[in-house]
Each structure stands twice: as C-alpha cells, then as structure tokens.
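Minutes, structural biology subgroup

Action item carried over from last meeting: produce the structure token record for Sulfate transporter (Mycobacterium yunnanensis). EB confirmed the sequence was re-checked against the source entry. Recorded below for completeness.
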Amino acid sequence: MHPSRSPLTVDVAIAPAAATVVLGGVLDATTYLVIRDAVVKAALDAPMVLVDVTALHAPSPSAWAVFTSARWLVVDWPNVPIGLVCAHTAVRRVLARNGITRYLPVYGTATAARSAMASNLGPLRQRARDVWPATPTAVAPIRDFVTHRLCTWSLSAFAPTACVVATVLVENVLQHTDSDLDVRVEAGDDTVTVAVTDGSPSLALIHEDDELLGALTQLQIVDALTRVWGNTPVPGGKVVWGVIGPENRL
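Output recorded by EB:
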C-alpha cells in the first residue's frame, strides 16, 4: 500500500521513566489533531515522551509542525521534554529544515533519545491521581485527597490554596459536564499543580463580560490563586489545570 493512503496507527506505552508514542501512516489535515492530542496526553502521564515517527509519512512538510504545537500545549504544564525518533536521515533533514528541531530534539534511535533526554531531566515530579463520581458530595473527599498528598510530600503550606483551586475546578466540571471527577495533584521543585479532566472539549475561559459582573467568577478565582492556568486538550475532552507557586500560598 502506498504510504500516502495508509491508515493512521497510534501505539502508546506508558512506563515510569518515559512514554513512547509510535506513529504510522499519514500525517495530514485529517490526522493532525489525533496525533497532537495523543502526544499531549502522553506528556500528562510520564516524565518524558519519545515519539517515533519512522513509519509516519507527511505529504506536506509543514504538517510536521504538529509536534511543535503539541510541545507548546504542554510548555506551562506539565512541561516535560518531548523528543522525536526517526530512523530516516532524509526525514530528519526535513524536520530540521522546517524548524522542528528548534523546539524538539530529533534522534536516529530510541536508545539515543532515551540516553540524551534522561541526562537532561530535572528532579522527577511527585504525582497522585484519583477519580470520583460526578456528585457534589465528592468535593470534601477531593479536598482531603489534595491535603493528604501535599502533607505526605512535606508541602502542607500549599494545601489551602490547592484545595480552593481543586474545589473551583471540580465545581466547574459538575456545573458544565456530567463527567466523573478525575483529579490529579503534582509537585515540582517549588510549585504544586492541581488538574481536573473532563469529557467536554469546550475550553474553560474567562469571558470579557465576566469582568463586568463585580463578583469573581470561578475561573477568575483560579486566575487569582495560580501562577498560570490553562486548558490542555486530550482525546475525549480536556484537562483544566492551575500551577501554584510559593507566592500564591494563602
């Protein structure tokens, strides 16, 4: 079968050290978002991501920008390194000519990628995740979950702010979706991140009209209590997250 007519294949393996995404088939306008979201989702679940594009064919060289797009979507959180693997020298040259290597390293083998990227990794994040049914009674145990994890990691000073952010994000999910409450909390060098996944692709946004209401809306509270916050699209929905720095502690 000609590669330009091959179906897209996406194989993802998550391991403690890295996520590996092996892509095959065609990268074009019809598969762009599927590929981007698969890479982004892998970045949420592992300390680094290797994307093997050896079997991926891009009829238009500009389509390779999907990987810089994925990188920018995770630059604020979780900000894990993403590297490309391609056994074909000619394709690696195409990636360089199209500016991809300015944002993501490209390697000839997965072994070389793991070795080089692991040597540049910072301290691993502490991570915890749990899921609750979509009911208001879940808010209290979610707050307990966040507090317990932060105390376990000797970060109890972040708990009051993190609990407020978690409460607001969970209530936003309850108000706008019927999704289960998929909550994660992470700790980096000097930050704590609270993130909630839901099944709606609609982005959580602060609208201009909200500024005229006087009282703070839910997302304005998140904006006020975090260093940065945002949405990350994933297959089947999105993750809304907030990064809390020492300056945000209550």
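Discussion: The helical segments are 32-45, 66-73, 89-97, 110-119, 139-152, 159-176, 218-225.
Next step: EB to file the record with the rest of the batch.
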